[in-house]
Specification:
Blueprint: E1 5-10, H1 18-29, E2 34-39, H2 45-54, E3 57-62, H3 67-73, E4 76-77, H4 79-84, E5 89-92, E6 98-101, H5 104-115, E7 124-128, H6 132-142, E8 148-153, H7 156-166, E9 169-172, E10 183-186, E11 209-212, H8 221-229, E12 234-235, H9 238-253, H10 260-267
Parallel strand pairs: 1-2, 1-3, 4-6, 7-8, 7-10, 8-9, 10-11, 11-12
Antiparallel strand pairs: 3-5, 5-6
The chain binds 2'-monophosphoadenosine-5'-diphosphate.
Length: about 270
Amino acid sequence: MPAPRYAVFGNPVAHSRSPAIHQMFTAQEGTAIEYERLLAEPGCFAQAAAAFFADGGAGANVTVPFKTDACAWADSLSERARAAGAANTLIKQANGKIHADNTDGIGLVADISHNFQVALAGKRILIIGAGGAARGVILPLFECHPASLTITNRTAAKAQELAAIFGIRAAELGELPAAGFDIIINATSGSLSGQVPAIAPAVFAQCELAYDMAYGREPTAFMRFAAEAGAQRSADGLGMLVEQAAESYRLWRGFSPETAPVLAALRGGEI
Ligand code: ATR
């Protein structure tokens, strides 16, 4: 029997750590899978995904910029994929239909609550950013019963739009209350280019965790800013990457991998 085939679609995709992560999960399961990177051209996701699944693909991850395309293309959607308007996981079902899910939010929640041991229930949570990355995590955060969930964004209208859709609060970036939040999550794409949202340092005064969904070899600019502003801890999004992958793997294969050794291997540069 050939090994079941999985892939990650993206553009660019050469940098993706997903193959290394999933190979470690497979070793834990004591089996073998194929997991490749597939570069698709913008506008051609549906064609590429259809070809992959017609050719025996069992499941796929989807990354930037195709998460919205994946959501539109799939035959059925999970509630969280529908809420996010984006999918990062595709699953071929026994009847041949493709089901789309979104494990990004649950990955963020698992990283904060399990890996960092920071409870989300009863906390005042701020999300910065109102693009696809922010949208994907609102529902799973909301389901953790925070005391409040507030969204803010450089372009205020976009935060207001998401706040109205999800029934959460919106606030202007320049008018956030000092010491107003316990957990502050950066979901802007600014980190990728070293840019920090224009937020007053006093906002971090009672922040127990400042979480950047981006990650890199060094602490991100947002993490450094938050630490200087008084956040007790700051984190990058590498744990979220591993946790969302673990949830995808579980959906595909019914096996829940251990994430700690995989995260340690990534941090240690071993994979
Ligand atoms: P993604 O899918 O990664 O969320 P996106 O949909 O392009 O990407 O959204 C990017 C988000 O990062 C937006 O909220 C954007 O703010 P605007 O809506 O005002 O454009 C935010 N962003 C990007 N660069 C930023 C910066 N330098 N400062 C603050 N916010 C930034």
